[in-house]
Amino acid sequence: RQAQYAALRTRPSVTKDGVHIELHLNAGLLVDLPHVSETGAAGIGLFRTELQFMIASAFPRISEQLKLYRAVLDAAGEKPVTFRTLDIGGDKVLPYMRTVEEENPALGWRAIRLGLDRPGLLRSQLRALLRAGAGRDLRIMFPMVAAVEEFDRARAIVERELTHLRKHGHGLPEKVYVGAMVEVPSLLFQLDEILSRADFLSVGSNDLVQFLYAADRSNVRVADRFDPLSPPALRAFRMVAEAGQRHGKPVTLCGELASRPLEAVALAALGYRALSVSPASIGPVKAMMLELDVSAARKVLLPLLEDKTGTADPRAALAAFAKAS
Ligand code: PEP
Ligand code: MG
Hints:
Blueprint: H1 2-7, E1 22-27, H2 34-39, E2 44-48, H3 50-54, H4 62-76, E3 81-84, H5 111-117, H6 119-132, E4 137-142, H7 148-167, E5 175-182, H8 191-195, E6 200-203, H9 205-212, H10 231-247, E7 251-253, H11 261-270, E8 274-277, H12 282-291, H13 294-304, H14 314-324
Parallel strand pairs: 1-2, 1-8, 2-3, 3-4, 4-5, 5-6, 6-7
Helix pairs in contact: 4-6, 5-6, 6-7, 11-12, 11-13, 11-14, 13-14
The structure holds phosphoenolpyruvate and magnesium ion.
């Protein structure tokens, strides 16, 4: 199997009916970087910047952050990297940061909320990212955006930092793309608003599914209780893909969901053309994409999303479809 996947490394990820499905990988530390060339990934679709903070014993200085971000961009070469700004709080705690005890940390003071309330922290991270991106394209995305006004405020900080760097004679990125993660259900109902502002969206299915079903992703009793291949979740994923197409803006999905081949088939059928997966999943997902007829998969899946009886079983239908093809 491993050898078989390794042989796919340089094969373009194109389905049988000629649809290009870009496969990017999820990363977060220096040790992940060799995977980019080893797997033949199209890029890094999610770089979790909080990991550097989580393994440190104090806030990493701007210079340390800059060093990591530069190394990441160097390792990726011409391939795009999407940096997610600090996503701490919730299940990701920094031992050296004082916070107050929260009754519901997943719903609490975390990610972009913390970033906007502690702008010094977000500003220094953005400064490090913008400096690391000097002379190249830079992609930044904000986690846990629940309201478009949060995105506006975060983007304004990016603009301010750009102005600051320009004034001080630093080299700037060629182009800065700023995107939002779709992982809070409220954003599903502001898709036109967010898409008129953001350069791209990336669905964080781990959190989106957690919040959609109100089922704690880290609680084994409930984490796998609801199937992300059942109609409610699939309809949510479809809404984002279709809104992206309407606005002509790229939409990817970077949760663990896309790392499973059958789930990746469903996402391709819903209109996703870029997925970001764990490094070990690039091979298996690519093998599946090479065997896939997307338009046939759409014909199987889309009617099930119109089901009003509550008995549709997209997982079973897709599994039968995958087996037959
Ligand atoms: C997600 O929520 O799907 C996601 C990619 O972010 P994380 O798993 O880091 O919360
Ligand atoms: Mg998340």
